[in-house]
Amino acid sequence: MTIPAAALAAIRARFEAFGGAWTDAPVLQPLGLLLDLAGEGMRSRLYVVSGGAEELAMRPDFTIPITRAHIASGRTEGRYLYEGKAFRTPSAAVGSKTEFLQIGIEAFGSFEAPAVEDAAIAALAWTVSKVGGRKDLSIQLGDVGLFRAFLIALNLPEPTRDRLVRVFANPRALWAEVRRSQAPADAKGSGGRLAGLLADLPENEAAGVLEELWTLAGIQPVGGRSAAEITHRLALRAEAARTPPLTAAEAGLIERFLKVSDQPRHALDKVEALAAEAGGDLSATTKSWTTRLKLLVGQGPAESDLILSTAFVRPFGYYDGVLFEVRSAALGPDAPVAAGGRYDGLPARLGGAPGAVGFMLRPDRAMAETAA
Q1: At what angle do helices 264-277 and 283-297 cross, to 10 degrees?
Q2: Phi/psi at 13 (nearest 5 deg)?
Q3: At 84, phi and psi to the nearest 5?
Q4: DSSP sequence for 225-269
Q5: Which of 210, 259, 264, 349 has the fewest other C-beta atoms within 10 Å?
Q6: What is d(CA 294, CA 271) in angstroms, rounded to the nearest whole number?
Q7: pLDDT class for 372, splitting at 50, 70, 90?
């Protein structure tokens, strides 16, 4: 649909009032980097462009490209506004398109009070989502950090915690991990024979072995993954197979945690009770959430507009903290009007300073005329 010029101007004005410099990002991005940072779940949604020494993909969103540009600038802090097209293969979602306009913000810095910044960003997302006249909006909230804190409260071994957090963005893999058999696993069997063999070597040697196997077999790998990246994933697979599975009690508590979905205060009470049942204490984490909610409600949405779901994830694997979507009842959960969250670790993985939060708005979905 054509987005009214007046609505676009009003949206831009709200972003500018919040603060930030307008910027842009190259359409073509390294495929391997996107897969490594956004997760394998995005592979089927990417438009791959071949022909050069490096496989490229058209940007599926702006977060990774703008993070790269921010780090290249040498700055440790900054707010960047953007407006432009993103590209993904169509999905079953309402209004799914191959290319679509996004307007958004990415904010970088070591914030003294992350909860304050989280609330401000989510409130801005709510404000710009309402510009198009929708009356059916709500905010879905989640938190990778809350899941991590709950695993710590369960006193799980660090390798087990890390593995579960790694697969959190992939619900199928997460539930498979939680429900994994309690029988001891053999790394070379459960993780795969090749994974087990290569995991016993330093990763640089393992990559060399894999390249030799490709040469002997006459295989030319495709899909954006180097030998080093593949061996790293195989090593993680073997490590997962070696790590003892959860006990029945641990798995049961995690399952109950992942089923919590309620208005935020009630959801946090349930999570605290589960942690206490395991002998842990989540009061510090829930206190920061109470602060965040108070600030968010004070800037726009009512508490009745908010739902906190402990299993809520977004398809991009770089989120490591609070995440949210502004949803329309008419469009449904697969077509958020705005979406974003905290991704503190992404800049650090690219060689910059940690600390980042942002969101994107789909102006076409914000228009009240867009219906399911």
Answers
A1: 180
A2: -60, -40
A3: 175, 180
A4: --HHHHHHHHHHHHHHHHSPPPPHHHHHHHHHHHT-EESHHHHHH
A5: 259
A6: 19
A7: very low
Q: Which of 53, 44, 43, 48 is nearest to 29 (CA)?
A: 48
CA nearest neighbour of 133 among 305, 318, 330, 293: 330
For 110-129, give the DSSP string: --S-HHHHHHHHHHHHHHHH
Which of 208-217, 245-254, 295-304 is least confident?
A: 208-217
Per-residue pLDDT reduced to its tens digit, 19-77: 999 999 999 999 989 988 887 778 888 999 876 677 899 999 999 999 999 999 999 99
Is the Cβ–Cβ distance between 276 and 103 less than 8 Å? no
8 A C-beta contact, residue 196 and residue 188: yes
DSSP 3-state of 323? strand
pLDDT for 187 equals 40
What's 73-97 look like in SS3? HCCCCEEEEEEEEEECCCCCCCCCC
Distance in angstroms (rounded) separating the CA atoms of residues 163 and 170:
12
Place of tokens 């726009």: 300
Say what the pLDDT of residue 77 is.
93
Inter-CA distances, 350 with 37, 66, 165, 357, Å: 9, 12, 20, 15
Token output for 340: 């974003």
Alpha-carbon 10 to chain mean position: 28
Query: N- to C-terminal Cα distance for the chain?
Result: 13
Q: What is the pLDDT of residue 189?
A: 44
Please give the Cα distance from 339 to 325 (Å, whole number).
4
Confidence of residue 197 (pLDDT cuts 50, 70, 90): low
